[in-house]
Design goal:
Chains A, B: InterPro entries: ArsR-like_HTH, HTH_ArsR_DNA-bd_dom, WH-like_DNA-bd_sf, WH_DNA-bd_sf. Chains A, B: Pfam families: HTH_20. Chains A, B: One of its GO terms (molecular function) is DNA-binding transcription factor activity. Chains A, B: This is Transcriptional regulator. The structure is a homodimer. Chain A is α+β, with helices and mostly antiparallel strands. In chain A, 59% of the residues lie in helices and 13% in strands. In chain A, strands 1-3-2 form a three-stranded antiparallel beta sheet. The termini of chain A are far apart. The interface between A and B is medium-sized, with 28 and 28 residues. The first copy, chain A, binds a DNA duplex through helix 4.
DNA sequence: CCGTTATTTAACTAATACGTTAAATATGCA
DNA sequence: TGCATATTTAACGTATTAGTTAAATAACGG
């Protein structure tokens, strides 16, 4: 994975464990132990996934006593959606319908 | 990167060279040589990036004489956008405005 | 058939990713 | 202080990634 921000974000999203962690965090903040519970991997492994997510800006973390709670951060998700926008014309259903319509119009010009 | 489809897609998007290739393909089909031209990496390297993109379903390829042309494929882009949808409430501006509005309403109940 | 052009495969290297277990660190509390 | 709990860091193994150069393959055109 490269070092630019978009690459870090996509790279972070490329792992199913990390996506599951994000899904969990979409329901509310959680500690490392809570996040680790559903997985069969060790705590240090989860700790590192969190570090990757944090480096991508997808989560922020705060300490309260011996617990470190993670919370989902909006900005990178917004960034990805904006990135996808420039490809929307390739898949947007209504636009495809428009294109088909235009093709039909062209066909009408032909014999 | 894991082996499920979404991971393959995000993994493919995690490389800036591959994103640049997709951007180029959004302007139309292109051969391997054409795609390689803007980059300072070797042809085999580009060939492999194309294989990664193809495995993710982000491009399809056809052969015509000795040229292999690549074209952008819509489905995975749609899939990513749909995936992002479930996080939209975390960053959608208008929703934030709604939330602020609700907070204001709550504040009005207070002294 | 031969030479040229386009592309891929093979073989290799270096860096990164992801997991492990063991040890270190941080904090709360008796 | 000292133990318990939560989390991170260290040290390590292995797989994957991304690049290289050299050789192989594919298809055209004389």
């Amino acid at each position: 994975m490269a070092t630019d921000r978009l690459s870090r974000i996509f790279g972070a999203l490329a792992d199913p464990t990390r996506r599951a962690i994000l899904a969990r965090l979409s329901e509310g903040e959680a500690t490392v132990n809570e996040l680790a519970k559903p997985f069969s991997i060790s705590l240090p492994a989860v700790s590192r996934h969190l570090k990757v997510l944090e480096a991508a800006g997808l989560i922020s973390r705060s300490r309260s006593a011996q617990w470190r709670t993670s919370r989902l951060e909006a900005a990178p998700l917004r960034e990805v959606t904006f990135y996808m926008e420039k490809y929307r014309r390739f898949w947007d259903e209504s636009l495809n319908r428009l294109e088909q319509h235009l093709e039909l119009l062209q066909d009408e010009d032909k014999p």
